[in-house]
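Can't paste images in this forum, so I'm doing it all in text. The chain is below; anyone willing to post the predicted structure tokens underneath?
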Amino acid sequence: MDDLDSAIIGVLQLNARISFSELGRQIGLSTNATAARVRRLEHSGVITGYRAILGSDAPVAEDGLEAFIDVRLDPARKSEEFLEWTRRIPEIRDAVHVTGAYDYLVHIRVAGTAALDRLLRNMKNDGGATHTQTRLALR
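Text version of the structure:
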């Protein structure tokens, strides 16, 4: 893999639907040479696929907050109910069952502190959380 391959991958990560001709213009290659390089990257396993990212899956603007929330559920709340609740909240990226003092580790992305406060209140009022501990991602 060389600098042109890296440039191709960089552009495709931003827009996988770009045409070979436009991709070639952006990296300085002909359409045919660009197509051949993309196919080689696919056949060698460097590029393994393309996907559509739904609006609900896209991260909030980069100036938002990314956080990880440890959640302890009310003992009367079933884990399946909590997971179903998390799937309806667009700010929640993932929720994993963990061992230790808490039941779940929830990965979120919110616009700011007010949105974080709303989410935490909602998690306790509707989600069944009795205790939470939030850690903000700094990178």
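The first helix runs from residue 3 to 14. DSSP finds five helices and four strands in the chain.
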